[in-house]
From TrEMBL:
Transmembrane region(s): none
Gene3D superfamilies the UniProt entry points to: Ub domain-containing protein, DC-UbP/UBTD2, N-terminal domain
Record-linked PANTHER family: UBIQUITIN DOMAIN CONTAINING 1 PROTEIN-RELATED (PTHR13609)
DC-UbP/UBTD2 N-terminal domain sequence ranges: 15-112
This protein's name: DC-UbP/UBTD2 N-terminal domain-containing protein
UniProt xrefs under InterPro entries: DC-UbP/UBTD2_N (IPR032752), DC-UbP/UBTD2_N_sf (IPR038169), UBTD1/2 (IPR039869)
Residue ranges, annotated region (Disordered): 1-29
């Protein structure tokens, strides 16, 4: 039996665990500063795509945290994880939250500033 606000249970009855996103490559090499700018722009505009601000805030905190802390944040916020890398999630009201890979991990072709 799940607690209020717990994440979606899988077929085996356990919560879906968050995993590190797969490696990816940006179309052209980018710097950390460029990646940070892309991330900041996404998070600044994300609430305008719909959903609840508190869920967007929880997703940002989880995306920027280590996996174990990210799992706690997601579970506490009641986020329903449908993809292990957090790229697609839902809230308890059914609103969908799509996160681009660049907010979840660094590209393999990141270059020095």
């Amino acid at each position: 039996m799940g607690c209020v606000g717990s994440s979606e249970k899988g077929v085996d009855g356990h919560q879906k665990k968050i995993k590190k996103p797969k490696a990816w490559k940006h179309p052209e090499p980018i710097t950390r500063a460029q990646l940070k700018q892309m991330r900041d722009e996404f998070w600044d505009t994300a609430p305008h795509y719909g959903g609840r601000k508190e869920i967007w805030d929880a997703l940002r905190a989880a995306a920027e945290a280590e996996l174990s802390l990210a799992q706690l944040i997601i579970d506490s916020a009641g986020v329903i994880v449908t993809s292990e890398d957090l790229s697609t999630c839902y809230d308890e009201r059914g609103a969908k939250y799509d996160l681009p890979k660049y907010v979840l991990s660094e590209p393999t072709n990141l270059k020095d500033d």
